Structures are given as C-alpha cells and as structure tokens.
C-alpha cells in the first residue's frame, strides 16, 4: 500500500482558514496555499489537491491533526486517504525541521505532509464512521453535558436553601430529584411549613412513592427553629430558587429524552453489519458489553462511540491506552518511574472508571480482586484502574467469541 501513494498533503486546520502543502512521493514540493473555512473553500481544497498532484484521490495520502470535523469529513468524502496525528507528535516532528522553535501554518502543513511520507506508521488511518455511531457519540456527549449542568443547578439550589431554609438540606443529598422539587413547591419557606396540612404532604409523598419519610417526621424537621435572616432575604432566595428550578426541570426533562435516545441508538448499533465472522449463537457487541457487571446505558454508549475503532478490532491494548488504565513507564539508567497515563480521551477514561467502580460493588470476583489490590497498598484510584484494565481484557475476549458474561465462571487462576 505504501508504494501506491503518489502524493502526500499536509493540512493545517484552523477556525477561519486552512493551509495545505502538497509533496510528491520523493518529497519534492508541488504547491501550497490557504483555503477559507466554508463550503466553497473546502470544495476548492479538494479540487486543488487533485489538480496539483495530478493523480486520483485513492493514491493521495493526507495528514491532519484531528481525526474528526468538517475538514476531515469533506476530504474523506472526496476519496482521499486521510491520516490523523496527535498534536503532541506534530510538535516533536516539527523539531526535525527547525531548532529555533519557529511555527506557522505553512510550516505545520509541510511537517504534516513530509512526516506522513517518511513516518506513516505513526499516523492513524481514518475510516468512515457509520451515521449511527456518529449520532450515538453526539448524544453521549450531550448526556454528559446535561448531567454536569444538572449538578451545577442542583448545587445552586442547595446554596439558596442554605441561606434561608437549612432544614431542607437534611431531607436528601441529591437535590435534582423530582419529589424534592415538588416538595419545595409546597413548602418554599419556614413560614409555609408551619401552615401546610399533614394530608397535603402525605398525598405528595404517596404520589412520589417516597418511603424514607412520613408526613409527620418530615413536617417535624421542616418546622424546626428557623434561622434569623434580614428582611427581604427570604423573598429574594425564593425568587432565585424559582428561576433555578425552571432551568433544572428543563434539564431533567432533556436528560430523560437523552437517555431514551441512547437506548434507541445502542439497540441500533446491534443491528449494524459486523466485519467479523458471526455464528448462529453470536451476540451483538452492545448485548455482550451490557451483560458485564458495571455497564449501564451511559457507559455502554461511551464505549461504543468513543472507543468504537478499538472495539471493532477487539484490540484490548489500544482500548486500555485510550481509557488511561495502563501506566506510563519512564526508565533512564537505574531510575524507573511509573506514572498515571494522562494523554487519553477524558470521556472514555471517566466511563471506564465508573464501569470498574460499579463492577466492584456488584461482582464478587471483581470485589475480591479490588480488595487484594488495596491490601497490597494500592490507592483506590490505582486499584480501579487495574480493575478497568482487567475488565477491558475480559470484554474484548467476550467480543471475539460473542459470548455473554457468566458470573459463575471461575477465573483460570482459581481453576488451576
């Protein structure tokens, strides 16, 4: 495949303009220029590359810093062989061409093109992603953003209650629960708590299916001695809470919609054609992963979208590196330092962290392994990374065979 490439092009992308630098197979300059970020500009970029190189798109390799985005998608749609390079690697490659630390768009485009010509093995070849995976990735990221927004609004609501109505803070820890918001609508102030009827609270607790509190115990708490605040503070806090709860209810409604979309898209991924040999009893990837302890809808969506390439290839080592669960060893002479891997997608790292955390709570074998790691002196986070690494290996092995997770199956070390 290396001999089939007749031209190499480096594209330094930006928000307003993109710079392209074209080279032939021997490194001779063919041309370079900039293009605006627009529909016409990207179409002109594809046409210029083909006109300047004079070969068909299937024999032109393009290097770029990002593995996604409109520039990458337009070039792939035109039929070019697009390869992605990590920005940190580009920074190292740049030192081969200038020792003074010079940097501009033209130089970066040239470095991308020439480094692709000489060191193509360090680039990641990009393949078209199925539209379902793209939608799943976007909904997964929207769900994460909505969850963070919900937590921010709930914390703001809690702070306002702390200012004038601290009795409410003892009811629950999660202030984004629907029954808490409904209860505040009934009892927004200490004065209202003293006048509200017990039957009204009982009806609301019954409708919300709350078993932890009874109407009498709840009103006894809310009718405790109120704190003294300046005149107008209560009214101001109530008005602030009303604005916060309006946004919080909207975010919670959107969260429910996002969860439904994640369930639908995960089911749609199971219907996608597989490149591997599929037997009559082989399960789809979402079904295999969902059978493992610790994997819910949010974690499943993150694995299928953020780690899609590694899961399709069943490559446990790549998935471990992307998840940040394998350490980085720095060895120099007699000194050896092992540190946590920092360069990895944070969404995938977070998903594997929660996968391992929940698996420790619900799986007996995983819990025993976690306890053994803690006994050896590992910290909680370090032990969870080891658990995540093991779970990724088990998941990739299950994906290769298409089998579901068996909780009663003993590890090989135990059976031996």
How would the blueprint of this fold be written?
Blueprint: E1 7-12, E2 17-24, E3 29-36, H1 39-53, E4 60-64, H2 70-77, E5 81-84, H3 87-94, H4 105-118, E6 124-125, H5 131-164, H6 178-186, H7 190-195, H8 198-208, H9 215-222, H10 233-270, H11 285-290, H12 297-306, H13 308-313, H14 316-323, E7 328-332, E8 335-339, H15 346-362, H16 364-375, H17 380-401, H18 412-415
Parallel strand pairs: 1-4, 4-5
Antiparallel strand pairs: 1-2, 2-3, 5-6, 7-8
Helix pairs in contact: 5-10, 5-12, 6-8, 8-9, 10-12, 12-15, 14-17, 15-16, 15-17, 16-17
How would you describe the overall organization of this protein?
The chain has helices at 39-53, 70-77, 87-94, 105-118, 131-164, 178-186, 190-195, 198-208, 215-222, 233-270, 285-290, 297-306, 308-313, 316-323, 346-362, 364-375, 380-401, 412-415, and strands spanning 7-12, 17-24, 29-36, 60-64, 81-84, 124-125, 328-332, 335-339. α15 crosses α17 (380-401). The chain is 57% helix and 10% strand. The longest helix is centred in the middle third of the chain and has 38 residues, at 233-270. With 416 residues, the chain is α/β, with parallel strands linked by helices. The strands form two sheets. Strands 3-2-1-4-5-6 form a six-stranded mixed sheet. Strands 7-8 form a two-stranded antiparallel sheet. It folds into three domains: 2-125, Ribonuclease H-like superfamily/Ribonuclease H (Nucleotidyltransferase, domain 5, 2-Layer Sandwich), CATH 3.30.420; 135-259, Helix Hairpins, CATH 1.10.287; 274-415, no CATH class. It has 18 helices and eight strands.
